[in-house]
Amino acid sequence: MAESKNLKDYHQKRDFDQTSEPKESLKKTSGEKPIFVIQKHDASNLHYDFRLQVGDVLKSWAVPKGPSTDPSEKRLALETEDHPLDYADFEGVIPEGQYGAGVVIVWDTGTYENTSEKKGEKYSMEEALEKGHITVTLQGKKLTGGYALIRTQGGENPKWLLMKKKDDEADARRNPVSTEPKSVISGKTIEDIKKEDA
């Protein structure tokens, strides 16, 4: 099964007897638009996990400062292991002793359109990932419009930059990371889940 190979790193880092994180993708892909999800993750360091569906997995980046709606902001995005599609709905507590221990909420989710191209030639998401230059249009609950992911360093731990494109949805005055802390699924904040788990 191709997915299990893609999720090898994900599986090796987790003990599914200890964590409630999903093991495989039970969702099936259809002809619908691919999904994206941004999860706020209070682990050893608070960060935002930016995930794009590519085929049957979620390609993932950890964004320490979270996404911005200001095109002048360049946000560091650290490439991480692929996650199963079912992870898009995951909220809760990852127990101590497990990889990524801490609290996760679904900060934003929706669908996206791949707009990756160069000189009029359109690229598939797989090609864009390989080239290290991805552009997408997000249709989320908090974030909409164009975003670019540009790889700045390859190797074992690839580094990228996540940037808002200059379009009608760009807004330098808005700071959703600070002003919109709640989950788009449960309406809970990280702090709400911590209190429930205490």
Structure, explained:
- The chain has five helices and eleven strands, in the order ααββββββββαβββαα.
- The protein starts with a helix and ends with a helix.
- It is globular, with a radius of gyration of 16 Å.
- By secondary structure, it is mainly beta.
- A hairpin with a 3-residue loop joins β9 and β10.
- The protein has an eight-stranded antiparallel barrel.
- It has one domain.
Short description:
The chain is mainly β and 198 residues long. The chain contains 5 helices and 11 strands. A hairpin with a 2-residue loop joins strand 2 (46-54) and strand 3.
What is the H-and-E element order? HHEEEEEEEEHEEEHH
Provide the gyration radius in Å. Answer: 16 Å
Q: What portion of residues is helical?
A: 10-25%
- Strand order of the main beta sheet, please? 1-2-3-4-11-10-9-6
Distance between the termini: 39 Å
Note the main attributes of this structure.
11 strands; 198 residues; mainly beta
Topology:
Layout: H1 2-6, H2 8-12, E1 35-42, E2 46-54, E3 57-63, E4 74-84, E5 92-94, E6 102-114, E7 117-118, E8 121-122, H3 125-131, E9 133-140, E10 144-153, E11 159-164, H4 176-179, H5 190-197
Antiparallel strand pairs: 1-2, 1-6, 2-3, 3-4, 4-11, 5-6, 6-9, 7-8, 9-10, 10-11
